[in-house]
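Researcher: Let's do a round of design. I'm pasting the structure tokens now; please hold your answer until I've finished.
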């Protein structure tokens, strides 16, 4: 999941420092100028820069924003990178946590759970004073604020939704579902008409159903902060929010609408993608960028629509985001904050959003999306969504819910899953 949510093209930018004159009486000044010309900001991320001399290689959107900062500030952003090759390696998050705690870099590209951990440990600088922070959508500020500090800012808002084959829905006279009950009815009709598995699932994203159903009222009501505080204090049980989604998943598994064994062992898109593209499965779940990628669902041979997950508020997008965090004790703190401010300016985010066709974290940046994504983007623009990651919540959401869903897929009961959430909450309160 993290490899997919974090995939960004990358490469090595060749730079050179021009030689200066050799007057003996200006040696000290030349050293000072050389130091200024070699100002560096160290970035740790899962990608690297591309070779600017390589032919027919489009530079990544992220890299273009880095180049903007380098040119405006006359400095160099140097990359340290890490990508786990297989399950035996340490994860990117593990390595990132170790480096940040040792203050090895100035700037980090962080996943949501890592943002929460490092924010709570006081390792990340407060970015709320940046000029670019003034333009952020409220959902971005909410998701990345820890103890009153804005500790990370993304370059895109990643929305998850249901990818549906509109043609198959129309073939059986079905409307796109708004509520859990309507989705169950659609699955019943598909199943009765010979569709073996109406919903193609993998071991990463079923938690989106849980998040959409559990938090629809909380994030779209008037008492979000109070409800989160009640969860953080233990006044309210986390399991009370989680139960509806788990009961729904259990019902879909029992009715054969989701194949639990296949879902448990399938990687995202690789597992369910072929059947969806072959029109054997009418529904899958994926992240926003999969609709734009030819290696995922960017060129289906049918009318595809991307909608939110069913909830009491209708089709509900689930939003998560990685983000840039700055070490509070960065060696080059002042320059790093300037780099981030340029990379996250409206000008840079417009370039990023247009190139990647994504939702921008800035409320001032808008781009035209493909038709398939408009149902999802319309809901987010209306302010209807739930957060899949929220650094304000003491119990990390995205990863923990995913792991407990896997217990359900393995055969655990809903009550056993709820007991696990109670345990996780008690542990967080004891820390």
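Researcher: That's everything. Go ahead.
Model: Designed sequence:
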């Amino acid at each position: 999941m993290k490899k997919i949510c974090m995939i960004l093209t990358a490469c090595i930018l060749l730079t050179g420092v021009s030689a200066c004159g050799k007057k003996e009486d200006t040696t000290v000044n030349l050293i000072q100028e050389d130091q200024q010309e070699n100002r560096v900001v160290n970035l740790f991320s899962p990608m690297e820069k591309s070779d600017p001399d390589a032919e027919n290689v489009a530079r990544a959107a992220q890299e273009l924003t880095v180049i903007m900062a380098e040119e405006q500030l006359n400095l160099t952003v140097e990359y340290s990178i890490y990508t786990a090759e297989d399950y035996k390696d340490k994860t990117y998050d593990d390595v990132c946590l170790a480096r940040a705690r040792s203050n090895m870099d100035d700037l980090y590209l962080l996943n949501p759970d890592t943002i929460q951990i490092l924010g709570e440990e006081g390792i990340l600088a407060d970015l709320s004073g940046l000029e670019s922070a003034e333009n952020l959508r409220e959902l971005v500020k909410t998701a990345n604020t820890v103890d009153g500090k804005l500790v990370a800012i993304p370059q895109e808002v990643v929305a998850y939704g249901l990818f549906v084959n509109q043609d198959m829905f129309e073939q059986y006279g079905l409307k796109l579902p708004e509520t859990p009950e309507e989705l169950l009815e659609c699955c019943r009709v598909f199943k009765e008409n010979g569709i073996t598995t109406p919903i193609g699932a993998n071991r990463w994203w079923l938690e989106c159903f849980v998040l959409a159903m559990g938090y629809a009222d909380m994030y779209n009501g008037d008492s979000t902060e109070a409800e989160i505080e009640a969860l953080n204090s233990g006044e309210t049980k986390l399991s009370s929010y989680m139960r509806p989604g788990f009961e729904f998943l259990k019902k879909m598994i029992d009715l054969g609408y989701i194949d639990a064994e296949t879902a448990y062992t399938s990687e995202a898109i690789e597992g369910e993608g072929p059947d969806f593209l072959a029109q054997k499965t009418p529904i899958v779940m994926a992240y926003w960028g999969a609709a734009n990628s030819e290696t995922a669902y960017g060129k289906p041979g049918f009318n595809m629509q991307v909608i939110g997950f069913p909830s009491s508020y209708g089709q509900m997008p689930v939003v998560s985001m990685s983000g840039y965090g700055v070490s509070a004790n960065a060696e080059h703190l002042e320059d790093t904050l300037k780099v981030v401010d340029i990379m996250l300016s409206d000008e840079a985010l417009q370039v990023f959003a247009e190139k990647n066709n994504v939702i921008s974290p800035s409320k001032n940046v808008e781009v035209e999306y493909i038709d398939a994504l408009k149902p999802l983007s319309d809901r987010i623009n209306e302010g209807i969504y739930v957060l899949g990651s929220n650094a304000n919540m003491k119990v990390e959401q995205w990863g923990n819910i995913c792991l407990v869903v896997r217990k359900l897929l393995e055969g655990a009961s809903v009550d056993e899953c709820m007991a696990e959430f109670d345990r996780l909450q008690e542990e967080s309160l004891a820390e």
